[in-house]
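Regression test case RT-17, inverse folding.

Input:
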């Protein structure tokens, strides 16, 4: 867990963009796990100057701080910015956390919706119940507060329990009262090559980063499988030996306090919506079978005593109205079979015209004409009959 160079800069910029420094003493920050500072003093100083952020400049008078080493402490970092209500939440206090809490369980009520800024710089992937952990992190954020996630993506096998995908945060926060301000990937770059056998906080501080565009530019185009496009981007970036592991960044702002729910993955939500839209459009184009249509069909076609009789397919409202008209004219002996694709109806008598049979291919291929008795699924039933060997000339519609 650590705040490295680009993380430090982005956190400072988020704070400035959200006016934290107008009254820093009124702001509250919690780190999910006390963060190591993996950034050099000169880098922090340059960031503050570049972003024109007011801070306690006496901090730089300390000889040990002026030296080009890693910034001393994450508590001190926020204190230098004038923010004194700073905390770290962790399972134990061995790294200096002051709020002890297991993210697999519940957050103490006194901390719910308390903080202006919540920073998860590499913790939740180490929590076994990551769904609960994400829920808990979000519950720490007050209305108009900010949550920042920087978590392991590609290149972190066995680093934690999980390597996180952007869809986790996109779907969770979109559902639960947050606006996502930024969602992207950061890949660490080292000019001399990324040698995993050599690892130190100092070396980490000297790495630079390459960011993708906001990942929401990858449209949820089901036919093109947007996630495959995204993975191609990751592969292209990491082909070079100078590139190492990849982080997922999510920055979200809470717009309302609401009960949190677990999401269905967005890709499947999109598919479901697309399927429902297709069905809705199809249903809008369906014709409605009127009583006059049924009367005309019975008097015209069934009155002619069709050869080998006629079978009724579907036993819903349309079939019931047809049965009414058949009984009015005394044509019930001309109905030779009743079919319905709902197997639970098989064996049940339909209006005393016969027992419903399940439409097997063998049954459908024998006998006379088959009348489709539904307006909602007319096309689907016709396709089913054709697929099961019924000739088009035997398929009748009202």
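Golden output:
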């Amino acid at each position: 867990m650590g705040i490295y160079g680009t993380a430090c800069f982005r956190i400072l910029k988020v704070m400035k963009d959200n006016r934290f420094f107008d009254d820093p003493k009124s702001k509250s920050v919690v780190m999910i796990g006390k963060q190591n500072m993996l950034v050099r003093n000169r880098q922090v100083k340059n960031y503050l100057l570049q972003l024109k952020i007011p801070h306690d400049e006496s901090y730089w008078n300390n000889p040990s701080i002026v030296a080009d080493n890693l910034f001393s402490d994450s508590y001190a970092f926020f204190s230098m910015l004038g923010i004194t209500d700073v905390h770290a939440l962790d399972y134990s206090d061995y790294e200096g956390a002051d709020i002890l809490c297991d993210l697999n369980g519940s957050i103490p009520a006194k901390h719910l919706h308390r903080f202006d800024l919540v920073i998860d710089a590499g913790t939740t992937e180490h929590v076994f119940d990551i769904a609960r952990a994400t829920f808990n992190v979000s519950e720490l954020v007050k209305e108009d507060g900010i949550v920042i996630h920087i978590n392991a993506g590609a290149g972190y096998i066995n680093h934690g329990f999980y390597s996180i995908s952007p869809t986790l945060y996109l779907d969770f926060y979109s559902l639960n009262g947050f606006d996502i301000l930024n969602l992207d990937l950061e890949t660490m770059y080292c000019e001399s090559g990324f040698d995993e056998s050599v690892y130190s906080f100092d070396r980490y501080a000297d790495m630079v980063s390459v960011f993708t565009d906001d990942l929401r530019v990858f449209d949820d185009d089901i036919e093109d499988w947007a996630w495959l496009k995204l993975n191609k981007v990751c592969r292209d970036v990491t082909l070079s030996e100078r590139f190492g592991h990849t982080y997922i960044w999510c920055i979200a702002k809470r717009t309302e306090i609401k009960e949190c729910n677990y999401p269905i993955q967005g890709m499947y939500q999109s598919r479901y919506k697309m399927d429902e839209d297709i069905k809705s459009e199809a249903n809008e184009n369906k014709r409605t079978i009127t009583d006059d249509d049924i009367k005309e069909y019975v008097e015209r076609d069934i009155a002619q005593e069709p050869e080998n009789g006629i079978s009724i397919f579907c036993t819903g409202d349309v079939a019931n109205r047809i049965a009414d008209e058949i009984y009015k004219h005394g044509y019930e002996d001309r109905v030779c079979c009743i079919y319905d694709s709902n197997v639970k109806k098989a064996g049940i008598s339909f209006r005393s015209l016969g027992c419903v049979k399940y439409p097997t291919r063998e049954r459908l291929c024998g006998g006379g004409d088959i009348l489709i008795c539904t307006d909602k699924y007319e096309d689907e039933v016709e396709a089913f009959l054709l697929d099961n060997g019924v000739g088009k000339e035997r398929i009748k519609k009202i």
